[in-house]
C-alpha cells in the first residue's frame, strides 16, 4: 500500500488488565463545509474519483 | 534598449520540455514573472530579454518608443506622465468605481473620451510619419537641383495623444510576457495559467481573461495565488530530511509592493482549502521603501547639508529625488535579502547636482523595518485566531512576494511560532532561486498547474466534466471536512500522560472528505499475544502559561516595574469522544532486543457523510479486523 505512512513509533504492549470498552454508537463530530482550491494533482485525483465514482482502491489501479 | 542585469540573466538557457508549451505567469500589480517547464518537466522561472526575472508591470511611451518592464519604470523619473503603472488592480473596474483621491506620479487614470464609464490612460506619443515620403516633399525636392543621392530623410514624426484602456494596457503587457516566453522556448505558447489575488471577482476575472485572449494566448486557468503556492510547495520532491508531514497547516505570507495577503491553509496530502484570509494594504514593499528612502535622505542631508524631504515630498526637486531614490533602493533591498553584508544605495545627481552613495547593514535595516515586521506578526495572530487556531498550530510558513524575501521578516515571525515550524529560511531553500524563493514561487506553481491542465482530455463526457471542475465555483470544489482529529490510543500500563497511553493521530481535523489515511507502526506484544487499541476523537489545544521573569539576585532596580511576563506555550491533547476499540491476536510477532514486537497497519476511511471504516491488519498476513462507525444521522 503506497499510501501508508510509516511511523517511527513503537506502541506499548496492551496491558493485561485492559478490556476494550464497549462501543457507544458515537459518530464522529459533525462535518463542516469547505471550498477546495482547484489546483494540483491531489485535487485532480479528488475530481476523478468523484466523476468516475471510484473508491480509493479502484482509483489506485 | 540597454539591458539591466539587475536580477538575473537569460544567458544560460535551460533545456526546455518538449511537451506542448505551457507557461505560468505571476501577474502582480507591481511585478510579473514567467515560468516554463525544463527538460525534467520541473518549473523554472525565466528572465526576459532584458535579463529580468521580476518584470515591472509598467509601460512607458517616450517619443516613438514603447518601453515595457523595468525600463519603463525608469521613465517615472523624467517622463512620469507617459508611464503607466498599477493597471492590474484596475482590471474589470468601472471608472466610477476607482477612487480618484490619490495623486499619482505616473500617467493618471482618466475617463475614456468615448467609452462610457471606462478607465483609461492618456499618453503623448510621437506617431512615426509614414514612409515613403509624402509626394508634396518629392515635388519640392524635384524643383531643387539634386545635390546628392542620399535617401530622402523621413519627415518628422507627429506628436499625438494616445488613449489606452486598462484592458488594452494589460493586453500589451501580457503579450510582451508571452513573447518573452516564446523567444525563450523557441516555439509558440499554447496555454497559460495566470495567478490572481483572492479579491478578484467575476468582473476582474472576465477582464483578465479577455485581455489575455486579445494578447493571443489561451488561458487554461486563472489560479488564486494561494493555490499556486500550494502547487509549488507540495510538488517539490520529498526527501528523508523532510520533517513536515503531508498533512499540515500552512501559512502563506505574501508581502508584495502595495500590500500584505495572508492565507491560512489546510493542506492534506496536497489537497488544500483556506481556513482564513486577511489582506492589509498598510504594509508592503512601498512602506518599506518609504522608511528606507527617508533613512537615506537623512544621510544625504547629513553629508551634504542639503535639505531633502521625501515620503512625502512637496517640492518638485524633492519629488524628483524621491523618484530616483525609490528606483535605487530596489537594488539595496535585493542585496540585503541576498547577503548578510552591508548594501549600498547610489544615486547620481540626487539633488542640486549632488551625487549620493549611502550604505545600510542588515541589522540597521531590520531595526528600521521593525514596525513593519511587527505589524505583519500581529496580523498573522489575527488571522490564526479568526480561524480558531493558535500560532503554534502552524506547521509551515510559505513566503510569497518580493518583500517576503527579507530574512528579517522570517526572524520576526519565527519568534512567535512553534519551534518545529518549517520555513524556507530554516529549510535553506530561499537563496539561489531554490524552491522556496518567494519571488519565483507563484510563477512556478502556475506553470506546474498549466502542465497538469494540459494533460486533461476532452474526448468523453467524463473527461470534460473533470476539466470543468477546475473552473471557478464548480460544485466539486465544495466538500465536507472533519472538525476533530481521529486517531489511535494504545493503552499503557501506568501511562504518565493524561491520555493513558500512546496517541497516534490518523485523520487530522480539517481534512476534506472522502479521506483515506493509513499508518504502519510497531507494537510491543505482551502476555496473551493480544494487541488492542482504542479509536478516539481528540481535542488539540495550546496551553499558555505566563510567568513573571525570574528575579535576578542583586537586581535592585526599582524602576522597571512593568517587566514583561514570559510566555511559554505547550501543545495539548485531550480525549474528546470514544468511538471504538479493536483487538487482534498477534501471530507474526518477532523478537527485537529480547522483546516481542509486531507490525500493525491501520487504515481509516471517512466518507463524505462522516461514516468511518477502520481496518487493522497485522503485517505479513496476520489477522485482519474491520469495524464501521455510522455517520451521525
Ligand atoms: N529580493 C528582494 N528583497 C526585498 N524586497 C524585494 C526583493 N525583490 C523584490 N522586492 C520588493 O517586492 C515588491 C514587489 O513584490 P511583488 O512582486 O510580490 O509585488 P506584486 O504582487 O506585484 O505587488 P502588489 O503587492 O502591489 O500587488 C517591491 O516592493 C520590490 O521592491
Ligand atoms: Mg502580489
TrEMBL record, chain B:
Comp. bias intervals (Acidic residues): 554-567
Keyword line: ATP-binding, Nucleotide-binding
Region (Disordered), start-end ranges: 132-158, 547-569
Biased composition (Polar residues): 134-158
Pfam family, one: HSP70
MF annotations from Gene Ontology: ATP binding; ATP-dependent protein folding chaperone
GO CC terms: cytosol; nucleus
Superkingdom: Eukaryota
Name this polypeptide is given: Actin-like ATPase domain-containing protein
Organism: Phanerochaete sordida
Amino acid at each position: 500500500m503506497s499510501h501508508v505512512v510509516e511511523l517511527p513509533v513503537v506502541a506499548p504492549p496492551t496491558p493485561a488488565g485492559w478490556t476494550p470498552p464497549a462501543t457507544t454508537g458515537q459518530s464522529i463530530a459533525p462535518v463542516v463545509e469547505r471550498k477546495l482550491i482547484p489546483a494540483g494533482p491531489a485535487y485532480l485525483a479528488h475530481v476523478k474519483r468523484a466523476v468516475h465514482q471510484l473508491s480509493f482502491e479502484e482509483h489506485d489501479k | 534598449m540597454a539591458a539591466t542585469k539587475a536580477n538575473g540573466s537569460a544567458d544560460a538557457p535551460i533545456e526546455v520540455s518538449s511537451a506542448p508549451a505551457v507557461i505560468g505567469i505571476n501577474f502582480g500589480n507591481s511585478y510579473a514573472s514567467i515560468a516554463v517547464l525544463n527538460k525534467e518537466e520541473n518549473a523554472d522561472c525565466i528572465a526576459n530579454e532584458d535579463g529580468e526575472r521580476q518584470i515591472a508591470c509598467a509601460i512607458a511611451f517616450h517619443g516613438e518608443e514603447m518601453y515595457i518592464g523595468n525600463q519603463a519604470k525608469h521613465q517615472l523619473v523624467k517622463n512620469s506622465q507617459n508611464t503607466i503603472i498599477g493597471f492590474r488592480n484596475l482590471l474589470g473596474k468601472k471608472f466610477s468605481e476607482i477612487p480618484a483621491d490619490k495623486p499619482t506620479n505616473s500617467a493618471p487614470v482618466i475617463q475614456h473620451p468615448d467609452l462610457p464609464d471606462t478607465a483609461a490612460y492618456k499618453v503623448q506619443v510621437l506617431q512615426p510619419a509614414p514612409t515613403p515620403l509624402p509626394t508634396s516633399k518629392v515635388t519640392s525636392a524635384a524643383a531643387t537641383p539634386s545635390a546628392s543621392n542620399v535617401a530622402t530623410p523621413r519627415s518628422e514624426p507627429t506628436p499625438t495623444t494616445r488613449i489606452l484602456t486598462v484592458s488594452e494596457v494589460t493586453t500589451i503587457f501580457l503579450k510582451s510576457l508571452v513573447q518573452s516566453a516564446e523567444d525563450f522556448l523557441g516555439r509558440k505558447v499554447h496555454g497559460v495559467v495566470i495567478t490572481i489575488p483572492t479579491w478578484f471577482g467575476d468582473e476582474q476575472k472576465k477582464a483578465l481573461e479577455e485581455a489575455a485572449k486579445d494578447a493571443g494566448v489561451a488561458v487554461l486557468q486563472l489560479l488564486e495565488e494561494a493555490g499556486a503556492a500550494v502547487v509549488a510547495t507540495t510538488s517539490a520532491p520529498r526527501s528523508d530530511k523532510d520533517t513536515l508531514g503531508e498533512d499540515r497547516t500552512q501559512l502563506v505570507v505574501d508581502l508584495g509592493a502595495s500590500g500584505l495577503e495572508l492565507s491560512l491553509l489546510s493542506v492534506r496530502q496536497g489537497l488544500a482549502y483556506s481556513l482564513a484570509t486577511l489582506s492589509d494594504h498598510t504594509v508592503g514593499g512601498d512602506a518599506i521603501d518609504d522608511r528606507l528612502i527617508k533613512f537615506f535622505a537623512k544621510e544625504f542631508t547629513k553629508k551634504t547639508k542639503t535639505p531633502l524631504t521625501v515620503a512625502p515630498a512637496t517640492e518638485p526637486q524633492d519629488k524628483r529625488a524621491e523618484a530616483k531614490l525609490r528606483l535605487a533602493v530596489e537594488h539595496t533591498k535585493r542585496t540585503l535579502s541576498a547577503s548578510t553584508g552591508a548594501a549600498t544605495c547610489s544615486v547620481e545627481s540626487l539633488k542640486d547636482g549632488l551625487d549620493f552613495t549611502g550604505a545600510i547593514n542588515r541589522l540597521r535595516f531590520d531595526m528600521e523595518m521593525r514596525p513593519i515586521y511587527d505589524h505583519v506578526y500581529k496580523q498573522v495572530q489575527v488571522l490564526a485566531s479568526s480561524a480558531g487556531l493558535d500560532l503554534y498550530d502552524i506547521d509551515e510558513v510559505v513566503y510569497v512576494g518580493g518583500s517576503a524575501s527579507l530574512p528579517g521578516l522570517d526572524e520576526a515571525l519565527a519568534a512567535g511560532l512553534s519551534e518545529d515550524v518549517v520555513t524556507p529560511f530554516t529549510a535553506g531553500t530561499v537563496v539561489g532561486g531554490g524552491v522556496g524563493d518567494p519571488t519565483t514561487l507563484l510563477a512556478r506553481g502556475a506553470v506546474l498547474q498549466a502542465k497538469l491542465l494540459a494533460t486533461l482530455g476532452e474526448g468523453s463526457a467524463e473527461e470534460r466534466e473533470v476539466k470543468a471542475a477546475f473552473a471557478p465555483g464548480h460544485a466539486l470544489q465544495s466538500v465536507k471536512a472533519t472538525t476533530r482529529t481521529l486517531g489511535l490510543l494504545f493503552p499503557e500500563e501506568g501511562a504518565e500522560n493524561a491520555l493513558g497511553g500512546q496517541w497516534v493521530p490518523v485523520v487530522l481535523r480539517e481534512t476534506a472528505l472522502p479521506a483515506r489515511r493509513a499508518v504502519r507502526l510497531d507494537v510491543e506484544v505482551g502476555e496473551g499475544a493480544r494487541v488492542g487499541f482504542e479509536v478516539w476523537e481528540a481535542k488539540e489545544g495550546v496551553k499558555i502559561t505566563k510567568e513573571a521573569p525570574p528575579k535576578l539576585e542583586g537586581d535592585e532596580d526599582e524602576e522597571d516595574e512593568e517587566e514583561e511576563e514570559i510566555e511559554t506555550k505547550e501543545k495539548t491533547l485531550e480525549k474528546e469522544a470514544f468511538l471504538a476499540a479493536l483487538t487482534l491476536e498477534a501471530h507474526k510477532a518477532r523478537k527485537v532486543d529480547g522483546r516481542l514486537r509486531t507490525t500493525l497497519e491501520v487504515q481509516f476511511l471517512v466518507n463524505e457523510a462522516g461514516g468511518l471504516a477502520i481496518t487493522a491488519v497485522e503485517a505479513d498476513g496476520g489477522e485482519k479486523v474491520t469495524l464501521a462507525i455510522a455517520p451521525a444521522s
